[in-house]
Design a protein that fits this description.
The complex is a heterodimer of chains A (214) and B (514). Chain A has helices at 10-22, 37-44, 62-73, 90-97, 113-124, 132-140, 153-163, 168-175, 179-192, 201-213; strands spanning 3-6, 30-31, 48-52, 78-83, 102-106, 129-130. Chain A is of the alpha/beta class and 214 residues long. The radius of gyration of chain A is 17 Å and the shape is globular. Classes of the chains: A alpha/beta (214), B alpha+beta (514).
Chain lengths: 214, 514
């Protein structure tokens, strides 16, 4: 699998590249800014791009803009954004609007090579990835009493994992429960939140995130 | 009694000398010219010497009608009378009076000249005094004429004239006093000038008010333009400075710092830098005190305006600099410390992997502890960096930043914000205002819900935070709210806190925006 790495901290970039190559990934290009990124993607056609949101010159949203440019031209290329903050605003909105092949992780997750490689594989395969901490904040946002309060603790766990972009199988593995049980939980959640039940993949992520952001 | 009578006869004309002194030294109490000084000294000497000589020859019993002032047949005896000199009385009296009349003519000439030279404002103020002097002079002239007539008029008519003449002379000092009072009042009007100018006078208003107080409708006011190095008036024309050689520093200017040339008055700041230049009626040079008073009021007004502008600029600059510094600090944390911590975590995970089959379990536990510690450090760092300056504010603006803030709040917060970008300082000030208001609502107000709104009204951004708590918040007590008010003031904003006990709290910040 081929991944381009864009991260402005040289030490971190080298660390990430080493981890990825050790894990059997191919890194055809690595760079410290976002300016040349879309052109590199055009030329190298990687399976996924790992990039920091904040990069030179202004250190604000260079990564976000580059990601949007890449997605417009290569919808099949997976995008995994790294952020040092738990930001649930425009990033989440972008994800919620079109979560196919799009991921958003807190920066320190790159230290866990298993988590990083799994996320890259998922976005490359068109799935969605949302950092658990971002999901936690969305679910824990103080709000007026409503249907969310009717969920059981287990159902909340399942809801969070759905929001992270995980499939039923992944949720079953994560919680160490049977696939049938997961399906039951999902059905109950959708009924309580009055969401459509026959949604799959990124459409399910979108529905859940839209609900949580409302 | 005879001693008193003699003394009265001797100093009978002293009032005339005092009157002359008064007229010549009016209104500032100084005898400006050498001629005036000589005239004054001479008139006192004349009364002292001439009056004594005449008294020596004066026998009240003998002298009857011809000496108007001394005709007092029943008075006396005159203690100073030397009977041997009685025969000289008519001659001495005539000479004494004659010299007195000549002095009077000098006095009238001096008065007319001063009137011609006086400024409009001063003429106006001194009008009563001039009228009184003219009337008194007319009576004195009449007196002189009657003396020269071969057959002096007598009877009731002459008595009335003499009485009126005396009244006119008494009226002169009173009129002078009135004049002085009016001049004082004119200067007091300069005090009103400060009130009239208000706190933030514009140039036209300044000029109009100054022109009115100085009684000079043609007054021109030039304000010093640092970049041009010239005095420029309201029409954009450059006003010529007074020439160096004509600049005169008057008595009070060492403190008042107003330098004058003919028809020109320059007003400098208290530090000695140029402030303004007045082109006025040259006749006003006659009244330096008035010009100085007006100059002082003008300086006060201009320095007030300039200090306020400076203070505003400085505080706004400080706030901007502090904001920029926070942004830089936050980026340094992101680019430096955070990257290194993540890298360390990365290395530690590799070590952990390598130790998977290691027989020493305590080693693996140590690595796990180090990992945990690093993760916590990263989280704390994130919190600190976010508190210093939220990146989302810079990147996405006030609305998204407030939404993010609401998600982290301890209580339900409804945010309604227009999707607009403002000046960074305005955005950060508005953001920190809401932070403080939310903290207040959660910590002190025992609120159940908060609503936050940010919208533009005209040229102002209005940010309002309303909670349903117990109220009673006070800018005077809470240091947080106090700091907010200061910060808002620094960027020309206003903070309103409406927090009746038991009625919730409404914190409203208004900020100028474009």
């Amino acid at each position: 699998m081929r991944v381009i790495v864009a991260e402005d901290s040289a030490i971190l970039r080298q660390g990430i590249v080493r981890l990825l190559t050790d894990a059997g990934f191919e890194v055809p290009a690595q760079l410290g800014d976002a300016e040349r990124l879309p052109a590199l993607v055009d030329a190298l056609r990687p399976d996924a791009v790992l990039l920091d949101i904040r990069m030179p010159p202004t250190h604000t949203d260079e990564g976000l803009l580059a990601a949007a440019a890449i997605r417009a031209r290569h919808p099949a290329t997976g995008i995994l954004l790294l952020s040092q903050y738990v930001e649930t605003t425009d990033t989440v909105r972008a994800l919620a609007d079109n979560p196919r092949g799009f991921g958003y992780l807190l920066k320190e997750r790159v230290a866990d090579i298993d988590e990083l490689t799994a996320a890259l594989k998922r976005v490359a395969a068109g799935e969605s990835v949302l950092d658990p901490q971002v999901v936690a904040r969305l679910i824990d946002t103080p709000r007026a009493p409503g249907p969310l309060d009717e969920l059981t603790a287990r159902e909340r766990e399942v809801l969070a994992l759905m929001a992270e972009g995980r499939s039923n199988d992944a949720i079953a593995r994560h919680l160490v429960i049977g696939a049938k049980t997961v399906e039951t939980h999902v059905r109950n959640i959708f009924a309580k939140l009055a969401l459509e039940t026959d949604l799959h993949d990124h459409r399910r992520v979108r529905a859940v995130l839209t609900y949580l952001r409302a | 009694m005879p001693a008193l009578f003699a003394l009265g006869a001797w100093w009978e004309a002293l009032n005339m000398a005092v009157l002359l002194h008064l007229v010549l030294s009016f209104p500032d109490g100084r005898l400006a010219s050498a001629l005036a000084r000589r005239l004054t000294v001479f008139s006192y000497a004349l009364v002292a010497v001439g009056g004594l000589l005449r008294t020596l020859t004066y026998d009240p019993a003998r002298v009857a009608v011809e000496a108007t002032y001394l005709s007092c047949g029943d008075c006396g005896p005159n203690l100073l009378h030397v009977p041997a000199l009685s025969g000289l009385f008519t001659a001495v009296d005539g000479a004494y009076r004659g010299v007195g009349w000549i002095l009077s003519v000098f006095l009238v000439v001096a008065i007319v000249r001063r009137w011609q030279q006086a400024s409009v404002a001063r003429r106006r103020a001194l009008l009563p005094a001039w009228i009184a002097i003219v009337i008194a002079s007319v009576f004195l002239l009449w007196d002189l004429l009657t003396l020269l007539l071969p057959q002096p008029p007598a009877g009731a008519f002459q008595e009335v004239v003499v009485l009126l003449s005396d009244v006119a002379q008494v009226a002169v000092p009173v009129a002078f006093l009135t004049g002085l009072l009016r001049m004082r009042l004119q200067r007091a009007e300069v005090g009103d000038l400060v009130i009239d100018l208000g706190t933030d006078p514009d140039e036209d208003r300044l000029r109009d008010v100054l022109g009115r107080v100085l009684g000079d409708p043609g007054l021109r006011l030039g304000l010093w333009q640092e970049d041009k190095g010239e005095y420029v008036d309201g029409e954009g024309e450059i006003l010529a400075e007074p020439r160096a050689e004509t600049l005169a520093r008057s008595r009070a200017t060492s403190t008042a710092r107003a330098a004058r040339g003919r028809g020109r008055t320059r007003v400098d700041s208290s530090r000695g830098t140029p402030l303004a230049l007045l082109h006025h009626d040259p006749a006003l040079d006659e009244d330096p005190e008035l010009l100085e008073a007006v100059g002082a009021a003008l300086r006060l007004a201009l320095e007030n305006v300039s200090l306020r502008t400076q203070a505003k600029e400085v505080t706004s600059r400080i706030v901007r600099a502090a904001d920029a510094e926070r942004g830089r600090l936050e980026r340094d944390l992101h680019d430096g410390a955070q990257a290194r911590l993540v890298f360390a975590l990365m290395a530690l995970r590799r070590v952990d992997k390598g130790l998977a089959d290691h027989p020493d379990a305590s080693l693996r536990r140590s690595v796990a502890e180090a990992e945990q510690s690093l993760t916590l450090a990263l989280e704390e760092l994130r919190g600190i960096a976010h508190g210093i300056h939220p990146a989302v504010l810079t990147r996405e603006g006030l609305g998204p930043a407030l939404t993010a803030l609401a998600q982290q709040a301890a209580l339900p917060v409804v945010v309604s914000a227009e999707p607009r970008r403002y000046d960074p300082v305005v955005e950060s000030t508005a953001y920190f205002t809401v932070c403080e208001a939310l903290a207040n609502a959660a910590k002190h107000a025992r609120a159940r819900a908060v609503s936050v709104s940010a919208r533009q009204h005209g040229s102002r951004l209005v940010v309002e935070t309303v909670d349903d708590g117990i109220g009673g918040a006070d800018t005077a007590r809470g240091s947080g709210l106090r700091g907010l008010a200061d910060r808002l003031a620094a960027v020309d904003g206003i903070l309103h806190v409406d927090s009746p006990a038991g009625g919730g709290t409404r914190i409203r910040a208004e900020l100028p925006c474009g």
